[in-house]
């Protein structure tokens, strides 16, 4: 099978690899689509994502495909099923797994990070992370289930209520997913702050976003929101997120900042406004919800997927040579 192998820091090679073997509890999948995201940028550059990737390794953690073979112990899916795969595999035995916080697992492994992923014609995964797709969810849209599931975990960590006004900071793929998800979870109003007029307008026209702010020329309102979701990962947008908080607000720090970065916030505000500052890491057991958001039509990702790449184009994408990308997926299968 054809595979794009990360062979070193910023080094990829197209290689012909043998069909991967499955254990009795595993599934072999013919890859259809693999989304590429900021985590792949980090892994490509030698920085860790949810875990470190040690070359040689096949990246690709946002995968959809068709089941090609199942191990003897697998009962949930069968050959020919269309599926999406949750990349994250938990040990089930550590302190965090035993206290219902598997995302914090001490022995996290992940398809496309610590074991070979979807940037190859075939890959394997334990049956416990393979989810059957409803008929009305396309294999291409299904490549967005993993990012949606991360956003679902973020909103799971908040207390969302119908009276709330929410602000999303960041008009990247994740910010635009959040704009739809918080509405699906019932908040009263969602506003969006970003840097691209066209994306901001699209979110008003297609996804029911009320007010938009282009932060290159407008200030983000302060003391104005019950819920703020930061989906950029920069100290200045993190500070903006806290400043936008009303009394009693919850701030979800979803963006991944540089490891050495800090941001400043007023210490008295935390007390006086009774703020909640909440982190969010990956996607524990949120795949079913993510699939349902697509199946029910409460979310629409097709207008956000701007590029369909070949395996041979992934390196150019990660080197920033492909411009104007909103979300890129790699069409792996024929
Ligand atoms: N917590 C998690 O589990 C998790 C999962 C996936 C992604 N993330 C993180 O979420 C963040 C967003 O992800 P993404 O895929 O959308 O990546 P992205 O790189 O597309 O997001 C950044 C986007 O923010 C916008 N932006 C940049 N500067 C801005 C500013 N000053 N004000 C407003 N908007 C600005 C731009 O549109 C940019 O594209 C990243 O930091 C990513 O690492 C976290
Ligand atoms: Zn990703
Ligand atoms: Zn564990």
Automatic annotation (TrEMBL):
Q: Which cofactor does it need?
A: Zn(2+)
Q: Does the keyword Acetylation apply?
A: no
Q: Which InterPro entries match?
A: ADH-like_C, ADH-like_N, ADH_Zn_CS, ER, GroES-like_sf, NAD(P)-bd_dom_sf, Zn_alcohol_dh
Q: Which CDD domains match?
A: threonine_DH_like
Which GO terms label this protein's molecular function in UniProt? oxidoreductase activity; zinc ion binding
Superkingdom of the source?
Bacteria
Coiled coil residues, start to end? none
Q: Cross-referenced Pfam families, in alphabetical order?
A: ADH_N, ADH_zinc_N
Instruction: Enumerate the spans annotated as Enoyl reductase (ER) domain.
Output: 8-330
Question: Which keywords does this chain's UniProt record carry?
Answer: Metal-binding, Oxidoreductase, Zinc
Q: Which family does it belong to?
A: Belongs to the zinc-containing alcohol dehydrogenase family.
PANTHER family for this protein: L-THREONINE 3-DEHYDROGENASE (PTHR43401)
Q: What's the protein name?
A: Alcohol dehydrogenase
Q: Which organism is it from?
A: Bifidobacterium felsineum
Organismal lineage: Bacteria, Bacillati, Actinomycetota, Actinomycetes, Bifidobacteriales
């Amino acid at each position: 099978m054809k595979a794009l192998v990360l062979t070193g820091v910023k080094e990829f090679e197209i290689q012909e690899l043998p069909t991967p073997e499955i254990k009795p509890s595993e599934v072999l999948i013919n890859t259809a689509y693999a989304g590429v995201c900021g985590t792949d940028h980090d892994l490509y550059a030698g920085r860790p994502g949810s875990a470190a990737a040690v070359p040689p390794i096949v990246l690709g953690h946002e995968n959809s495909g068709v089941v090609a073979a199942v191990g003897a112990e697998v009962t949930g899916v069968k050959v020919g099923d269309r599926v999406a795969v949750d990349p994250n595999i938990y040990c089930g035995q550590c302190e965090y797994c035993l206290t219902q916080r598997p995302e914090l697992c001490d022995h996290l492994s992940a398809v496309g990070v610590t074991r070979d992923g979807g940037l190859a014609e075939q890959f394997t995964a334990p049956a416990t992370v393979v989810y059957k797709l409803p008929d009305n969810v396309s294999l291409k849209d299904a490549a967005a289930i993993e990012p949606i599931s991360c956003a679902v975990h973020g909103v799971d960590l908040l207390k969302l209520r119908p009276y709330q006004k929410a602000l999303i900071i960041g008009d990247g793929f994740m910010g635009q997913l959040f704009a739809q998800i918080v509405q699906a979870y019932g908040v009263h109003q969602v506003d969006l702050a970003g840097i691209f007029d066209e994306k901001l307008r699209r979110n008003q026209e297609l996804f029911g976003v009320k007010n938009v702010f282009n932060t290159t020329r407008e200030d983000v309102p302060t003391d104005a929101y019950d819920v703020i979701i930061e989906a950029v990962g920069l100290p200045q947008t993190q500070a903006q997120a806290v400043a936008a908080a009303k009394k009693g607000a919850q701030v979800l720090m979803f963006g991944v900042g540089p490891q050495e970065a800090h941001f400043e916030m007023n210490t008295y505000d935390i007390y006086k406004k009774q703020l909640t500052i909440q982190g969010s890491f990956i996607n524990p057991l949120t795949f079913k919800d993510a699939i349902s958001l697509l199946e029910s039509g409460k979310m629409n990702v097709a207008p956000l997927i701007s590029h369909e790449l070949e395996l041979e184009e992934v390196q150019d994408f990660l080197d920033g040579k492909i411009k104007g990308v909103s979300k890129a997926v790699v069409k792996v299968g024929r």
